[in-house]
Each structure stands twice: as C-alpha cells, then as structure tokens.
Inverse folding.
C-alpha cells in the first residue's frame, strides 16, 4: 500500500445543499455520496445541509447537521461540530449563491475554523468576478487543500484568474448515471408520444435558460417536421419563484400561444425524480440547452444528456464548447432561433448523422459515470490528507471569547410587521400592541425604510420582507413630502391628518438619508425610481438646515447616494458644504478636555463622528478622519464609565462643565454608537472599534445598568428605554428600529466582504 493510500479517510462530510431541496447541487451531492459508499462500504459519508427556507426540509438520515443559510454563527457552529466529531475530510460543494453573505462570504467562517483537509468542488468559476467574488475566491482557494473542477476551462480560470497552482487542482468530470444506449422509441409510449420526434430541455427554469429561443424556432421546425414535440421539464427555479412567482413560465406559455405552437409543446412543471428524469431523457431524440450567455462553466443537465447518448444542440456556453467537441454535439449562436431551427431540421432529416452523434456522445459519457467519478474523488481525498498543511489548533468551540466573534440574535421581524399597516409604521406601542392614537411619523418611516433596504443585504436577496414592507415606508415619505416647500411633514394622525406645525430639520434629513440608502443599495427598481424622483429636490432643501445632526444625517444620505451616482456634482458640492460646516463648529466648540462639536452631548451623538469618518475617507481629508476618530474615542469613554458597560447619554443630556444625568437611557443612542464604531472599524481595521460596537450592542441584550434586556426575543421588538428602577415595557417604533438597525449593521459587519464604497 502506498503512502497516499494509507491516507484514505474513514469519515467524510459533504457541505452544501441536500435533497429534498430542489437544487442541482443537492442532486449531485446525493449521487456522489451513493457512488462513494458503493466504492468503500467501510467508510462513512454524511452531509451538512445549507437550508435556505423556513421551516426547512424533511432531510433523510444522511444529513447530520443543518446550516441556516443567512446566519453566519451557524457556519461557525458547523465547524465546531465537524472538528469534534472525528471528521477526517470535508468536501465543500461551492456555488456563490448557495451561502449567505455578499458573494456567499459566510462560508469562509466555516472553512477558517476547520481543522481537517478541505476539498472544494467549484460549481461556478467566474472569468470576470466582481470585487466581492474575487475576495471570497482568494480566501477559499487558499484555505482549500484541493480544488475540484469539472471542466478544463475551469482549471484554466483557477490558474490564470485566481493564481491557483496547477498541482492543487483536480479535474473530475461531472458525474452521470450509467444508462444503456437505447432507441428513444422505447420510452415514448410512456408519455403518449408514439410516432413523434421529441426535443427536450430539462432543469430548473429561469430566463437564463433561453427557452424562448427554442419556442421562437418552433414554427420553422414544424413547417418541415410537423410531428415534433418539445418537452420542457422542470419547476421554476426557487430563487426566481420567490422573486417573481411564475411570471417567467407564464411569459413563455403566452409566447407558445402567440406563435400558434401550443399543440407541439409540453410543460412538465415540477421537480422530477431521478428515475423520471432518465425516462424523459430516454424518450428524447434531440436534447437542447439554449442558455443565453457564455459564462456557464458546468451543466449537469448537459452532462446527463451526453451520458444518455442524446443528439445535443446547444448554445456555445463554456461547458458546452468543451463537452460537445469532436462531433459529440452541435453548437449554435446565442439568441438565434433561426440557427436552432436549421440544426434541428438538419438532424431530424439525417438519421445516420444523428445516430453517429449519439454514439460519440455516449462513448464520451462512459468516462463520466459515477463509479469513475467516485474513484477520482477518493484519490483527491487521499492526496488532501497526505499533503494537508493546515496547523492544528483547538476546535472553535474551545476558543476563548476574545478569539471568536460573538453570536448575534436572529433577525426576527414579527413586531416590525405588527407595527406596520398599509399607511406605514406606527410611532408608539402599548407594551407590544400598536398605539393607534399616536399615529405615524416621517422619522420612523424613514428609519424603517433604511432597515428594509439593509435587509436586502442581510438576507442576501430581495426577500419577502423587503418586497412587502419597503414600498409602504417609501409611500409614506412620498405622502409626507410637501412639493411647495420641498420639505417633509412629520406627524400624521391615525385618520391621516397632518398635525405638526413647523417642519423638522432632523425629520427632513432622516428622510433624505432613507432616500439615499434606497438609491445606493436597493435592487428594487420601483423603489429606486420613486426615491430618485425626490432626492435632488430634498437635498437642496437640506442645505438650509442649521442643526448639526441634520447635517450629519444629510451627509450619511449623500454617502449612500454616491455609491450609485459617483459623478453627481450637486451631491459632491453639497457634501463639501455640509462637512465644512460640521468641521467649522467643531473647531469653534472643541477644547482639549471637550473634543466635541457643541456645548452639549444630546441625542444620536454617534452620527456626528460617523459623518466625519465617511467624509474623511471618501474626500481624502485626513483632518476630517482625525476629527472623526478623536470625537468618537471621547464619546466612547464618556459613555463607558471606568471602561465598563455602555451607558448612553440620557434624555437629560450632558452639558460642558456640568454633571451628566444617567437616566432615562434611550435605544437610539446605542444604535448611533454601534453604527459609528463599525464605520471606524471598516476604516481603520482596528479590532478595538468592532469591540466597542459589540459593547454598545450588548446594552440591548442586558449588559446595562439594570442588567435587564431591552430586546424581546419573542417578538423581535425592543423596549423603549431604561428608567432608574425599571425597563420601559412599551415597544415603540423608534426603539424597535434602533435595535433592528443595530442588528442589521452588526450582521453586515460579520460578512467577510464589504460592499464597494463610494469614491
């Protein structure tokens, strides 16, 4: 026995999606485990399932552990589980969209803590990754002991784009079932297709699959071959369904009717079993993959079709170029129905050529059957164990608290929903029940809109939370906007009557901040359109403000806006005007023992240094950055007496030269400190600032003067503050939003990758 063979693992864990989740990677992993078990009955192969939905899936016994996709702490817990349960090798099935965080960055929290060899199977390898994807790939490829690719082009990209050494890469083709080479007519009676020529496309449906091109080609095909039937087998992709429902399927069904080919098209709208799939494949005379772009580096559906000996017509995406060469299939241009029609007719009219193509494809597929693939994986596992260089260390569960990130509460939005009706979010609550008598405010709806947009990033997709709530909050701002004064009203009664007198500068600036956040971060085009309609008009009015906090809120708004519109001169000039004002009052008010902007420390104080930090960084003004860090450091010390827990400046404020009052303590101040300290951490990389953010956040959880939590885990709400002797039990909008915004920003800070910021 060779040294390498002595390294054959006895216990292997596979991390990725798992059946019954409707996912190609789940199917791939299940078949790989089956094949490895057949190869080595003495070894144990089990799965760790990434779960993308509530309440999850009815997993089989092979799934030993679950990961909540969007919860970064769950990835660390998974590493703990694998480290202490004798797992010898981990095979990570990698696809960016499978894991939480920007570009799937949450998975790095798992891989970093693992103490055994990691073999990563790359289902997607991008030739032109964005900044977040590149950073994830850089760390993932460095931490992995072996990298499995399913195409030679993927191997090339790893070497040239990501600088991975060749000796670290294992080429293993996509596995396929070993099926006999049979005449399609053998299966056609099962589907009542006797005497028909069958074209087939299967897989989870999405616009990228290009099915519309085949439908456009059908009239020309049927004109020459009227007995053709086109089978489209597969459910709508779950991610597409969550965003758009069945709109794509309905669109292509309407196209079928418009082209008059409804008698020749069959939609089989469900996720089919493995056996059913083989029967559908068996009945096909021609298999078509009309994907609309080149980037697809792997396709399990095409691999299955080749392995079944199908005559294949495909657009020239990368995997098809490689798999269908040497006469194993035919390539047609992207989005070219006429070319599809020509090739289909040509193959149907030339049975000897079609049969020869089938035979060549089938023979190529013998190199890809699962027993062959399992053997290659077994050798990859052996190499990884023999050459594993990762230093041994304690499992994450045994790390001291200072060496491991704290776990955060789940993002629970029950109370937020309870407070929100079709008008917007209610201002107050009596305990956890909305108080209709106090109506609504622009302040709270602006905060709620900011949260809804941040949830797009926290949830890593446009979730139902965002689609449902965000338009209501933005609609409130639209209603609150007075087009004559170009300002926002603030107080709206339950019967929808405005009750405030003069316009509030802070409310106006908070609304601007919300609009900027929509424009800078949201993927929701409807929201962006309306926000863009308002932003410029609102920005001009914001310049008239005299409140330093209004200036700070407006600067935060401009920063968010410039994420998307970096060349907007009006926004850039407004930023210069407002930050100069803030810097000027600091120079006039500050002293060595009072490095602050005003004679009083009042409310939302962290937003002032926060604005200075942002402007200093993106305007290349070290003087502003220095002021931001100095004032934030002083504010931290002011609100952490003797270096203990966080004590927010209370409603009594703190005046220069006078005593500071201790109560009442408000959640909004804790949020401002969380946000500012996280910005300082992003700017400097100094872990001290991340710790200060955690200390401020812990105030919500009970690390405070009363040692009682303000966060209500049952509702996801937050109580309204601390009195000297008790917690205010009401869970109003301001406090709940302060907590949820703090939690959202803490979760975003956990993401290994930060989104690209403004220049």
């Amino acid at each position: 026995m060779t040294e390498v063979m002595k390294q054959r693992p006895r216990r292997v864990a596979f991390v990725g999606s798992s059946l019954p989740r409707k996912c190609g990677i789940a199917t791939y992993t299940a078949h790989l485990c089956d094949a490895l078990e057949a190869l080595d009955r003495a070894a144990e192969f089990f799965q760790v399932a990434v779960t993308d939905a509530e309440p999850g899936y009815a997993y089989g016994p092979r799934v030993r552990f679950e990961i909540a996709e969007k919860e970064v702490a769950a990835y660390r817990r998974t590493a703990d589980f694998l480290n202490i349960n004798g797992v010898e090798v981990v095979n990570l099935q990698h696809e960016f969209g499978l894991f939480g965080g920007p570009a799937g960055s949450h998975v790095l929290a798992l891989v970093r803590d693992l103490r055994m060899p990691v073999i990563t199977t790359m289902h997607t390898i991008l030739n032109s990754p964005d900044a977040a994807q590149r950073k994830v790939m850089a760390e993932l490829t460095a931490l992995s002991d072996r990298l499995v690719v399913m195409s030679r082009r993927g191997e090339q990209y790893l070497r040239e784009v990501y600088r991975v050494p060749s000796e670290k890469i294992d080429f293993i083709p996509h596995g396929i079932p070993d099926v006999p080479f049979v005449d399609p007519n053998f299966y056609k009676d099962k589907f009542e297709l006797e005497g028909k020529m069958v074209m087939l496309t299967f897989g989870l449906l999405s616009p990228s699959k290009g099915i519309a091109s085949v439908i456009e080609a059908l009239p020309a095909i049927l004109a020459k071959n009227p007995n053709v039937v086109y089978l489209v087998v597969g459910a709508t992709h779950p991610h597409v369904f969550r965003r758009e429902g069945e709109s794509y399927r309905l669109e292509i069904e309407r196209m079928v009717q418009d082209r008059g080919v409804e008698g020749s098209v069959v939609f089989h709208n469900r996720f089919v079993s493995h056996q059913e799939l083989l029967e559908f494949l068996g009945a096909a005379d021609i298999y078509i993959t009309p994907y609309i772009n080149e980037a697809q580096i792997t396709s399990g559906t095409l691999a299955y079709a080749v392995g079944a000996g199908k005559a294949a017509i495909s657009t020239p995406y990368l995997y098809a170029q490689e798999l269908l060469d040497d006469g194993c299939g035919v390539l047609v241009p992207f989005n070219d129905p006429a070319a599809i029609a020509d090739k289909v007719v040509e193959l149907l009219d030339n049975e000897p050529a079609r049969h020869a193509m089938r035979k060549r494809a089938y023979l190529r597929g013998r190199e890809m059957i699962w027993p062959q693939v399992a053997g290659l994986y077994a050798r990859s596992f052996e190499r990884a164990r023999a050459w594993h260089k990762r230093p041994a260390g304690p499992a994450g569960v045994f790390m001291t608290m200072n060496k491991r990130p704290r776990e955060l509460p789940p993002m629970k939005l029950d109370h937020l929903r309870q407070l929100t009706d079709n008008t917007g979010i209610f201002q107050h609550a009596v305990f956890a029940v909305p108080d209709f008598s106090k109506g609504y405010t622009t302040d709270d709806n602006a905060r709620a809109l900011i949260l809804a947009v941040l949830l797009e990033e926290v949830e890593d997709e446009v979730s139902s939370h965002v689609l449902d709530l965000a338009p209501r909050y933005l609609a409130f701002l639209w209603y609150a906007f007075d087009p004559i004064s170009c300002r926002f009203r603030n107080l709206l009664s339950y019967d929808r009557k405005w009750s405030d007198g003069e316009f509030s500068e802070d409310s106006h600036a908070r609304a601007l901040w919300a609009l900027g956040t929509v424009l800078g971060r949201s993927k929701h085009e409807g929201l962006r359109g309306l926000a863009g309609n308002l932003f410029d008009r609102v920005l001009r009015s914001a310049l008239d403000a005299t409140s330093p906090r209004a200036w700070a809120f407006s600067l935060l708004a401009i920063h968010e806006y410039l994420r998307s519109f970096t060349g907007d001169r009006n926004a850039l000039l407004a930023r210069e005007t407002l930050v100069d004002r803030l810097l000027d009052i600091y120079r006039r008010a500050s002293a060595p023992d009072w490095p602050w902007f005003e004679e009083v420390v009042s409310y939302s104080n962290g937003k002032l240094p926060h604005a200075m930090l942002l402007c200093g960084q993106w305007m290349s003004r070290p003087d502003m950055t220095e002021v931001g860090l100095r004032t934030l450091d002083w504010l931290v010390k002011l609100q952490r007496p003797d270096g203990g827990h966080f004590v927010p400046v209370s409603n009594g404020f703190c005046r220069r030269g006078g005593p500071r009052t201790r109560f009442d303590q408000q959640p909004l101040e804790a949020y401002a400190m969380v946000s500012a300290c996280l910005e300082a951490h992003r700017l400097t990389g100094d872990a001290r600032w991340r710790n200060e953010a955690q200390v401020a956040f812990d105030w919500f959880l009970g690390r405070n003067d009363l040692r009682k939590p303000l966060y209500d885990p049952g509702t996801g709400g937050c109580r309204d503050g601390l009195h000297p002797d008790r917690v205010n039990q009401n869970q109003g909008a301001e406090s709940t939003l302060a907590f949820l915004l703090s939690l959202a920003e803490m979760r975003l800070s956990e993401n290994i990758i930060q989104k690209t910021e403004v220049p």
User: Anything to note?
Assistant: The two ends are 59 Å apart (CA to CA). The longest strand covers residues 44-51.
